[in-house]
Design a protein that fits this description.
It contains six helices and six strands. Strands 1, 2, 3, 4, 5 and 6 form a six-stranded mixed beta sheet that branches. α1 crosses α6. The chain has a single domain, classed as Alpha-Beta Complex (Maf protein), CATH 3.90.950.10. The chain is of the alpha/beta class. The mean pLDDT is about 95. Bound molecules: inosine 5'-triphosphate (ITT) and magnesium ion. Keywords: Hydrolase, Magnesium, Manganese, Metal-binding, Nucleotide metabolism, Nucleotide-binding.
Length: about 170
């Protein structure tokens, strides 16, 4: 099966490859059509759906599209890290799933509200480069017990399993 991931992020591509072991996985930088830093479940999920369906626009017929999107969402006044995934089949059936959430510290929340992107805030906070392509915010704040790749791999498994259940014959 041909799978196209709607992002050139090595972390996202690696997560898809880890689940779709037998398949031909390629990547295409596809716009999420939502804010660079989504601020709700709804917006983050929409970004994942847009990346999955958008990635199919130039793909060969029969290709399956996968979109993964990171964002933040409020529970009351507290801001959590959230992530969503979407899988769109060739006949336009869409499966969605969300990933683990963790509370973001107040100073990270303040920087996001001020308009910064989480990736940039994390690099400054952790005094590192490219946190988003490595363990991610989730990896830093869970002391590396759950990396961004592990979290996305779980999301992709949730997508894969739902798709498999739906196509079971
Ligand atoms: O190339 P793309 O696919 O855009 O990959 P990305 O790393 O920018 O990932 P997203 O656009 O899905 O993430 C949306 C925003 O949230 C940030 N983000 C989400 N999760 C993160 C994490 O675990 N660590 C660091 N930044 C994260 C990311 O930097 C963006 O600002
Ligand atoms: Mg991005």
């Amino acid at each position: 099966m041909d799978i196209i991931v709607g992002s050139k992020s090595p972390t996202k591509i690696a997560a898809v490859k880890e689940v779709f072991l037998q398949d031909n996985v390629t990547a295409n930088d596809t716009p999420s059509l939502v804010s660079d830093q989504p601020f709700s479940d709804s917006e983050t999920r929409q970004g994942a759906i847009n990346r999955a369906s958008g990635s199919l626009e130039t793909a060969l017929p029969g290709t399956v599209g996968i979109g993964l999107e990171g964002g933040a969402m409020y529970v009351g006044n507290e801001l959590y890290l959230c992530n969503w995934g979407a899988l769109v089949t060739a006949d336009s059936h869409t499966f969605t799933a969300s990933g683990a959430r963790i509370l973001l510290p107040e100073e990270i929340k303040d920087a996001l509200i001020a308009g910064e992107e989480l990736g940039d805030v994390m690099d400054r906070y952790a005094q590192r480069e490219n946190v988003r392509k490595n363990e991610g915010a989730i990896g830093i704040f869970t002391n590396k017990h759950v990396s961004r790749k592990m979290m996305f791999t779980h999301v992709v498994k949730l997508l894969y399993g739902q798709w498999e259940y739906w196509t079971r014959g």
